[in-house]
What does this fold into?
Amino acid sequence: RSSHQAVAHKHHLYITGGEFTSPSQMQFYHHRDFWRLDFATFCWEELKTVGGPSPRSGHRAVLAKNKIFVFGGFYDTGCDVKYFNDTFLFDPADMKWTKVGEDRR
It folds into this structure.
């Protein structure tokens, strides 16, 4: 996995997005999954959430006021590239995503 984003919050590390490219570069795809590492146990847990960002790479994530914000990125189909100008907020307290910014291009 590369081009993902990681954000630390309290006792966890959250990972979102990114991409996979095979060594031969014949296989490529973007990740949509969302993971959390527990710093106490060093165990990974896939968070099965809804309403979060679509599969993407090249996005940015930041923690502000105990919320995780994810902005932008791109999705490459091999024939076309879609660039995102949207923002999502994840609240670790209630484990929910909210879209807070619209793609207005």
